[in-house]
Amino acid sequence: MDEKDMQEYQAFSQQYQLVVVQKQQLEAQKAEIATALKELEGASGKVYFSSGAILIESTKDDIKSRLEKQKSDAEAALEKISVNEGKLRKRLDELQSKLHGSD
Known about the structure:
This protein has a single domain (about 5-100), classed as Orthogonal Bundle (Helix Hairpins), CATH 1.10.287. It has a two-stranded antiparallel sheet. The protein starts with a helix and ends with a helix. A hairpin with a 2-residue loop joins strand 1 and strand 2. By secondary structure, the protein is mainly α. It is about 80% helix and about 10% strand.
């Protein structure tokens, strides 16, 4: 493996690590939304959503729609990032094989 390949491996490795962190953040966001939806189902009385630093009174249906949209957006982003993660992983494996093949 030459120096160019090693630099490429390091660059892909850093990108991969960033993608993994982003994926974990999206999974945490999705779990948080699922928890909020579950809590909303059992809520009675007034319900609120936050917008910046303020809470705004709303209906359960409106908040449910907002949360479901956020969940859908998170799922789409997760799908996209998973594809990117797979491509990066494949290239890293190729470079790693090249590295081990030149020993």
